[in-house]
Amino acid sequence: MSSVYPVSRPRRLRRTPALRSLFQETEVQLSSLVLPIFVEEEVSDYVPVSAMPGVVRIPEARLAFEIERYAKAGIQSVMTFGISHHLDEAGSDTWHENGLVARMARICKETVPEMIVMSDTCFCEYTTHGHCGVVHDNGVDNDATLVNLGRQAVAAARGGADFIAPSAAMDGQVQAIRAALDGAGFTDTAIMAYSTKFASAFYGPFREAGGTALKGNRKSYQMNPMNRREAIRESLLDEQEGADALMVKPAGAFLDTIRDIREATHLPLAAYQVSGEYAMIKFAAAAGAIDERQIVRETLGAIKRAGADIILSYFAMDIAEQGF
């Protein structure tokens, strides 16, 4: 038995709900949550995502209604993902002035100007092959993709996006996007880099939600989940290139990475509780194995405790409607 017992009794601070609340070290606030949304063009009805119970593809015609609903519930930030019906080899719809990327940002900002709009900047939902860039010789051409990422970023910024969020995992993408934005006069448009993005099995349900046509995998450009030092290096490179905020994706299985990067940078740090994390909680709760409400709050708290300032989560609306 400890030599300081019985003088030291930590349980004194846990005795009542009021004491536990007073001494709680970590809190998650609704203002720090970002809601990822899926918007599909040229459909008339919501499309449920079977692998993600409670998540739907929003018809573009209903996007304004949904943004108003989110804002009334207290959601302050959304991340937009588009399901395009205009695919080609390069994903060129993403940089058209009236393409889906630009329209999503424009609708969100015109409907609720104070809503923070983050535009996921990639090509996987807009290409016939489902990869995140230009494919040459059975591989993604990094530098050719950089040019197109800059074009997409400018289109999103013209639409009103507050943040460009590049998730393509190309080397040099933050620098290329910063140069394109600045060159087009969007010096105030910020970049939230998917700076440490792992080639993770936790993304599985997203493929149904996003409608990607990918065959194979993205391991040649997304990170090996087993590499801890490289994860830190990736985020610090994006900081050097001019990112305004960094991100770790996925979140729950990489709390150590969140902590590592938090200790290595002073930039704001986001973490993405991804589709697989969401689905596991939903299906386990449906089976009666866990208490969904408690598990959601515990997992979000763990991500925050590890060092994330911002959390992207499909549970954000549940939190908004139910409270903590």
Please describe what this structure looks like:
With 324 residues, this protein is an alpha/beta fold. It has helices spanning 17-22, 63-73, 100-111, 142-159, 173-183, 204-210, 228-241, 255-264, 275-286, 292-306, 316-322; strands spanning 33-40, 47-48, 56-59, 77-83, 116-121, 135-136, 139-140, 163-166, 190-191, 196-197, 246-249, 269-273, 310-313. The strands form 2 sheets. Strands 1, 2, 3, 4, 5, 8, 9, 10, 11, 12 and 13 form an 11-stranded mixed beta sheet that branches. Strands 6-7 form a two-stranded antiparallel ribbon. α5 (173-183) links the parallel β8 (163-166) and β9 (190-191). The radius of gyration is 20 Å and the shape is globular. The model has no long low-confidence stretch (mean pLDDT 95).
Based on secondary structure, the structural category is alpha/beta
Termini separation (Å)?
Answer: 37 Å
Let me know the average pLDDT: 95
Largest sheet, strands/sense/barrel: 11 strands, mixed
Any low-confidence stretches, pLDDT <50, length ≥5? Answer: none
- Helical residue percent? 25-40%
Got a strand count? Answer: 13
Strand portion, in percent?
A: 15-25%
